[in-house]
Amino acid sequence: MAKLKTNTRLSKRVQTIKPSGIRRFFDLASKMDNIISLGVGEPDFVTPWNVREASISSLERGFTAYSANAGIIELRKEISAYMQRRFATSYDPETEILVTVGASEAIDIGMRAILDEGDEVIIVEPSFVSYVPLVQMAGGVPVAVGTNRHDDFKVSASQIEAAITDRTKALMLCFPNNPTGATMTGEEMKEIAAVVERHDLLVFSDEIYAELSYDEKPVSFASLPNMKERTILISGFSKSFAMTGWRLGFVLASPDLLAAMLKLHQYSLMCAPTMAQYGALEALKSGMDDLERMKQSYKQRRNYIVKSFTEIGLPCHKPGGAFYAFPSIEKTGLTSEQFAEKLLLEERVAVVPGHVFGEGGEGHIRCSYATSMDNLEQSVERIDRLLKTLL
Ligand code: PMP
Questions:
Q1: Quick one: which of 137, 172, 282, 336 has the fewest CB in 10 Å?
Q2: Which CATH architecture has domain 49-286?
Q3: Which atom of ligand 1 is nearest to the CA of 237?
């Protein structure tokens, strides 16, 4: 019998998904020496020791079994209190909080819980690269609404309203944003909330960078009038507590939505890793000083990178949060892919070409400034040198 051609057995759905544009770049960079990477979207801090110690201690005490599907109740209670304290939201630990394997899982099960085939989700772009494929994998149709630097990468209520059809089920928001670092004020979000209510939509609010807001106090979408029951609030520990490898996030939603997500979570994952949950519990109990210290350090680097890019002639919107700068390279006449490739091959600096983040991303590069000041200074020098050959 002929050897099975396994690629003929893949689902149509999975075949429509493109591999991540970020990975291609890093595969290239990983084969080269002496690279400075402004590529990866993660903190350059090691998880604070008290958090690691709490996790080690849970192992020493023998807490190695599955936890409750929704997560250990102590952690859910702590998440509830933390969100109330920091973001003025109110969630019941028993019925409205689910501890997930990263914010990534929360987005996945959120989409799968609400989408039927052909339902549309409006995604404000440029955006985190997982939203589009996760909508598609859930049978939904992503609808892009692009933002641009002239509007500080904010989205307006009228832009969203113009994209609504009779198939629109939800809106995906993420402020502070990956990759632009853009933030929105409470007043601006209220205008969007009015559109959401008028058109009876659900909202995914990815607030994973909320703690890393440098200029204004962040506003949780769920804290706006009438928005709690319409919002699937996604957050986690990866960015604010420097815990990317722990794979721990959470999702907050009204009981019906949460119960649906819990079903998916329980069948596909059972529970988030128990030892990681004990670490996260400690992060919420005693980690706020560390969080503040890391935040101040990112803020200093944010100020440096924006000032330096402006000085070397790269127009750069001032990001109010997260740890990304998203300067425009339009005047070089190159596409973002061409620019990023040249920068990698000729100057050995790895950045992510903006087009991979969707509409509004072309003409920009994403530079993560969660790296040492020394690396940032050298990167600015190298980018400046490349620019001088191009302009
Ligand atoms: N949302 C956004 C906007 C992100 O940038 C990321 C990580 N890059 C995630 C979610 C996923 O985070 P986690 O590590 O918690 O899965």
A1: 137
A2: 3-Layer(aba) Sandwich (3.40)
A3: 15
